[in-house]
Design goal:
It is a multi-pass membrane protein. The protein is mainly α and 335 residues long. The chain has 15 helices and two strands.
Length: 335
């Protein structure tokens, strides 16, 4: 009896009871609630879409053979390339100006703050078309531009028309205007990062430049990227206004020129519209993947079994695939 009581003392843990196979939980199979309104609305939308498609295909006045011919025409393809070049170069200038002015607005120097506010006030307060006209008329206003001491000797002088070609004027006009709008987007992204991040980095001995590059900007990109992608798509269509410079190699001008030459206005408008839709679709896909990259760790409402593997680095994934660690390292210590 003593030995038996010793084996069942307080120092030992009782053996777990055998699991009863009959106590298995059986889940019911709930049926979804019928939603006839959803199916009726979907059917109506499908019928309307089929009617629209039929109206586009069967109407001979669209001249789809002409659309297909000019869609592949050499000058139109070249115009697509010039339009893309205008878009990306203008966005590059805009992003640099936006980051610079956003940092200037947060500076403790009042001169930098006033200059950034004046830049935003002027370029956001005037229409882009008016700005492009002035950029195009720069050679008429100033035949020569110079660098030197104000009201003093000129160190470098050059002719305006040799530097500010229509392409350069179009890129600068679009980029400087875009920088004024992107500046507020960048500023909101920088303000979205908690100040404690900067204080902790400063306590570790990091400088302001390191804090901005390594702490603030990587976290702010989650807020900056989505509206910047929208601005890029908007910039693609804004390039159609560079006729005001004038720059005559973009997609809109080339298709309009062919329309005036062939008297086929509708087919050439469809050519431009189709190309813009194709480029916009590609940019939207790129925007989606960039947003997902900078949004790692902030996903909410996503199935963890689907999103966890995507957010891991290659090294972490290799460790998990080796099965040398447990899926839940705290499983043994969970009561």
């Amino acid at each position: 009896m003593g030995a038996a009581s010793g084996t069942t003392g307080a120092g030992t843990r009782p053996a777990p009871a055998a699991e009863d196979s009959r106590s298995t939980i059986v889940l019911n199979n709930p049926k979804p609630v019928p939603r006839p309104g959803t199916w009726i609305s979907a059917a109506i939308v499908a019928v309307l879409g089929a009617m629209l498609l039929n109206a586009l295909i069967t109407n001979e006045k669209f001249h789809w053979d002409t659309v297909w011919f000019f869609f592949r025409e050499v000058r139109v393809i070249a115009a697509v390339g010039w339009t893309l070049l205008l878009t990306f170069m203008a966005m590059g200038i805009g992003i640099v100006l936006a980051v610079t002015t956003a940092i200037m607005r947060q500076s403790s120097n009042p001169v930098l703050r006033v200059v950034s506010l004046a830049y935003l006030w002027f370029f956001r307060g005037t229409p882009i078309y008016t700005q492009l006209v002035f950029w195009g008329a720069l050679s008429a206003l100033y035949q020569h531009l110079s660098l030197g001491v104000p009201f003093g000797p000129e160190l470098l002088t050059f002719k305006t028309t040799t530097v500010f070609t229509p392409f350069v004027a179009a890129v600068l006009g679009l980029g400087i205007n875009e920088g004024a709008y992107l500046s507020e987007i960048v500023r909101s992204g920088l303000n979205s990062v908690d100040r404690g991040q900067s204080e902790a980095a400063r306590a570790l001995g990091m400088g302001k430049g390191q804090i901005l590059r390594r702490i603030i900007l990587p976290q702010a990109m989650r807020v900056i990227v989505p509206p910047t992608g929208n601005e890029t798509i908007s910039m693609l269509k804004t390039t159609s206004l560079v006729l005001a410079v004038p720059f005559t190699l973009d997609l809109t001008f080339v298709t309009n020129a062919y329309a005036s030459w062939t008297y086929q206005t509708i087919p050439l408008l469809l050519v431009a519209a189709i190309w813009y839709i194709i480029i916009t679709s590609i940019l939207m896909v790129c925007q989606h993947y960039i947003e997902r990259y900078y949004g790692r760790g902030f996903e909410s409402g996503r199935d963890p079994r689907r999103g966890a593997r995507r957010s891991l680095s290659a090294r972490q994934q290799a460790i998990l695939d080796a099965h040398t660690t447990k899926d839940d390292p705290f499983l043994e210590y969970t009561p």
